[in-house]
Amino acid sequence: MGSFTKWLGAGLGFTLGGPIGAAIGFALGSFVDKFEIEGFKQEQIDYDRGKPRRTTKTHSNTQSGDFEMSLLVLASIVIKSDGKVDQRELNFVRSQFLSMYGKERANNAFKLFKAIVKKEVSARQVCIQIREHMSHASRLQLLHFLFGIAKADEFVSKNEVDEIKKIAGYLYINQYDFESIKAMFYDESGNAYKILEIDKSVSNDEVKTAYRKMVKKYHPDKLRDLGDEHLKGAKEKFQSIQDAYEKIKNERGL
After folding, report:
1. Cα(73)–Cα(201) distance, integer angstroms
2. What is the pLDDT of residues 18-31, one digit of tens each?
3. Maximum distance among all alpha carbons in the chain?
4. What are the extents of the domains in the chain?
5. Domain 174-254 is found in CATH 1.10.287.110
């Protein structure tokens, strides 16, 4: 296979098959020659048949490339949900890829993303595939990234929020976690409490308990298996927890 599909296949595990693999195959068909496509399809067949593939040092069956491809496909769904593809949203996706993956890998990923955007993909089928293989912490990180995309054009439409909420449901992310991550992208009264998944009426001890619980849930170490390139977003999410707790402490004089 050529260099592009070699890059692609090298980081994939579960996303080589299923609806995500089909979306990748569609995208490849728009700019990769037939010989390379056939090679990629053979890898998909081998994976679906359960043939042993490369081994990794991760403790789960989700590889860095799996997270990347899941991100690409889900982002393509959200970015189209308001009826248009905004350049600022595309720029956000590209900038995130650059910061995570470096120039060469980001260029490959973005090229694939722009092709995937042109395909209609079933959010439900994609999410079923993801939740069968990804940890809860990884799925929360996907949701965080999707809200970042929606906010990139400085206006989050109802359609975008509804689409992300639907995706969250398909990923088995509960309402409290959804509202917590959503609140990280808004500057509204009471959002600090939403981030910690508590009500304003709770006691000071309950605030501290909630903070400890959220620190454990969102600690970046939970995503270390996905590679250092995905820890930046995890640290941003973790910092939101710290900031929310500090804001509540200041308000209450703790």
Report:
1. 40
2. 899 888 888 887 76
3. 66
4. 1-173, 174-254
5. yes
